Amino acid sequence: MPVPLPISKAHDRLIDDMIVTMKKAKGVGIAAPQVNVGLRLFIIAPEPSIRYGRWDPRKYRGAFSAALGHATGIVDEGPKAPKMSPVAMINPRLVHHSKKMVTDWEGCLSIPGLRARVPRYRSIVIEFTARDGRRLRGKLTGFVARIFQHEFDHINGMVYVDRVKDTRTFMTEAEFRRRLTPTLSHRERAKRSGG
Ligand SMILES: [Zn+2]
């Protein structure tokens, strides 16, 4: 169900609660259906962590500064998780996507302890209503585009396991950590994961 606009106080509080829940779970995104609310609403907030590799601030400086203000500022160019304040995306829409797809690791707060490799569009053009009521449009690539697509699936009643092409890539979180340490480069990690 679309979020009625302008956003109500109750829904504004819901966003705060979702951000708290996401941070507690050390997640990089959370969708309303994951907290049993049937609204077209999610939060995305990639943070550097052991699960997603290290963040190089020189590489990403400023890339997200406009994320909350100007839609065109939301750009991620790389496999490593950039630092990004939580952004609530209300009634989001996937406007356009690249033909090219990229396969990489995903997990989900609703499916604890499991990871697998999931193909996603490399770049997407998206639209959403921000918390302040403005309708924004922007291009996302790389890791942030992946998070958007993961959360967008949640509000459409899907989870990442529905999109896994190679089921042999399913592994436990513990096994994932053991095999893919953050000291390896992304390319090395990809190689060692067996592709
Ligand atoms: Zn999820």
Describe this structure as you would to a colleague.
A five-stranded antiparallel β-sheet has the order 1-2-3-6-7, sandwiched between helices. The chain has helices at 9-24, 57-60, 142-155, 173-179, 186-192; strands at residues 29-31, 41-44, 87-97, 101-108, 111-121, 123-129, 135-141, 171-172. It is 25% helix and 27% strand. The protein is globular, with a radius of gyration of 16 Å. It has a single domain (9-192), classed as Peptide deformylase (Peptide Deformylase), CATH 3.90.45.10. It has 195 residues and is α+β, with helices and mostly antiparallel strands. It is built from five helices and eight strands. A hairpin with a 5-residue loop joins strand 6 and strand 7. Residues 108-110, 150, 154 line the site of zinc ion.
Offer a quick outline of the entry.
The protein has one domain: Peptide Deformylase, CATH 3.90.45.10.
Strand content: 25-35%
Radius of gyration: 16 Å
Number of E-type strands: 8
Output the helix-strand order. HEEHEEEEEHEHH
Total helices: the number is 5
Structural class of the secondary elements?
alpha+beta
Q: Strand order of the main beta sheet, please?
A: 1-2-3-6-7
What is the topology?
Layout (H helix, E strand, L loop, with lengths): L8 H16 L4 E3 L9 E4 L12 H4 L26 E11 L3 E8 L2 E11 L1 E7 L5 E7 H14 L15 E2 H7 L6 H7 L3
Antiparallel strand pairs: 1-2, 2-3, 3-6, 4-5, 5-8, 6-7
The chain binds zinc ion.
Zinc ion binds next to helix 3.
Record keyword descriptors for this entry.
binds zinc ion, 3-stranded antiparallel β-sheet, 195 residues, 5-stranded antiparallel β-sheet, 25% helix, 5 helices, alpha+beta, Peptide Deformylase
